[in-house]
Amino acid sequence: KQESAFEKEISSSVGASGYMQLMPFTASDVEPDVERRDLIEAETNIRIGSKYLKKLLDRYKGNVALALSGYNAGPTAADRWIREGRAARSFMEFVEQIPYKETRDYVGTIFRNYVWYRYRLRGERVTSTENFWPAPVPPPTKSLEKSLTQGD
Q: Under 8 Å CB-to-CB from 49, ≥6 apart: which residues?
């Protein structure tokens, strides 16, 4: 919903395409044989976007907020925010410290949507941010910082 408002053939001003608003370079990094025109096919777009999101969730050890910020602003930016110590506090403090307004709004809106849909679909009230922010992320040590910059 947040990426495309469910518009299958939507494209952004920077070249992202389809339901999951994939950049062609990102899509080809996930599936090297994909072509730009394939990204407006719903099944292809969702498959590749889901793989990419899974990759980011693995990279950030299940931290949904960091994965979403990496999805929107790029993992290089999310890695930098970790190094700067922005992720060393609570979920709300992290979101408020995201320096890109679009990404700050994106992560916050997806959390709001999560709360809303959880209530509307399951009747459950969300009382913590634990599913999005399992624990604060300390700034990396030198060895972890090297690992992050190498994409491990």
A: 3, 18, 19, 20, 21, 22
Q: Is the pTM of this model over 0.85?
A: no
Whether 102 is a known active-site residue: answer no
The SS3 of residue 46 is: helix
Q: How many CB atoms lie within 10 A of CB 67?
A: 24
Is the distance from CB of 40 to CB of 9 less than 8 angstroms?
yes
**What single letter denotes the amino acid at residue 103?**
T
Mean pLDDT of 11-23: 72
**Per-residue pLDDT tens over the stretch 87-124:** 998 999 999 999 999 999 999 999 999 999 999 999 99
Measured in residues, the chain has a length of 152
- Centroid of chain to Cα 131: 14
Inter-residue contact 4 to 10 (CB < 8 Å): yes
Q: Please identify which of the residues 3, 9, 43, 130 carries the catalytic annotation.
A: 3
Query: Which residues touch 133 (CB under 8 Å, ≥6 apart)?
Result: 63, 64, 65, 90, 91, 94
State both tokens at 56. Answer: 């980011």
